[in-house]
Amino acid sequence: MQRQVYEYHPVFGYRFIPGLKARIEHEAGGYLMRINQAGFRCEREVQAARTPGRSRVLLFGDSFSAGDGVSNKQRYGDLLEELVPNVEVFNFALSGSGTDQQYLIHREHAPGIEHDLVVIAVLVENIRRVAARYRQYATLDGQELVLAKPYFELSADGELTLRHVPVPKEPIPEASLGEERDEVDRGGRFEWLRSTVNRLGPTVKDLAQRVSRYQPLPHYDSPDHDDWRLLRAILSRWIAECRATVVLFPLPVYQYVEDSASPDGYRARFEELARDTGATLHDPLPDLRSFPLAERRSFRFEVDCHPTPKAHRILAESLAPTVRALLAKSEARS
């Protein structure tokens, strides 16, 4: 995560720079980014009251939903507005954030605005991020530093306690963390091995993962895993606090889309969570997997693993019927 488009925020750590308009360099040729005055990558300014005759959807997530790699109007949240009549999508996704930070964003912004639906887009690797207390980031000159992030602790009796708020502002020398160096999110397991394989290029990396059946997120394999219990507790509290219908939208990492790892663990956990909380689960994996395997590789960039415009279109088309049905039901009740 690079910081040239972000500024400090005391509650969730950082946000996009309000009012920023920028072209971001990228392997696909660059993309356009527009930030609203609230500090989020959204074409719409946040207003308290609904637009007459329109429904309002609030979208929360990380870079897969904020749209790293694509311009604003190519993202699945923006495309929903084409596919669902009379709907406005307010995108509160924040690149590099964890579900814990996204919950804090909802808590700060959602109570003050009218809305009909909340979409919580959980990139499934966020299970690592909520367990971390620090994140690595890269400066413009390529230097890697560590920043503190807000995080929750889960007690034995199921109580959540928020830590690191206000969030420490200054970068932290990693050597000074001592035993807390294990609390830095480094992007996955087997850091040295991933670094070695990455240097060999994306083709070798894909082959190595497919042959080894590398499982990127074993945290979901058991409902009793500490990291899942923490993520589940955060999502359960978040859903309980929502004033509108909630859609849980688990976004798979590419290993699950491309059949190099089994998604059974995370799919089972989110099904359990939706059942127990009453949230509506929309799992896009079947729609993503409905395409030939060779075509699925085009759902991410050559090096960057973020969704391409094609993948965003598929995500929007997958989610749209669920959003339409829930908004129709909400309108019928009112």
3D shape = globular
CATH class: Alpha Beta
The whole-angstrom Rg is 19 Å
On the 0 to 100 scale, the average pLDDT is 92
**Total count of strands:** 14
Q: DSSP helix count?
A: 12
For the biggest sheet, the summary is: 5 strands, parallel
What is the H/E string?
A: EEEEEHHEHEHEEEEEHHHEHHEHHH
Helix content: 25-40%
Task: Describe the overall structure.
The chain is an alpha/beta fold. The chain has one domain: SGNH hydrolase (Rossmann fold). The protein is built from twelve helices and 14 strands. The strands form five sheets. A five-stranded parallel sheet has the order 6-5-7-13-14, with helices on both faces. The chain has a three-stranded mixed sheet with strand order 9-8-12, with no helix packed on it. A hairpin with a 3-residue loop joins strand 1 and strand 2. Helix 2 (76-83) packs across helix 12, helix 3 runs parallel beside helix 7 and helix 5 (191-199) packs across helix 6. It is globular. The model is unreliable at 189-198 (pLDDT under 50).
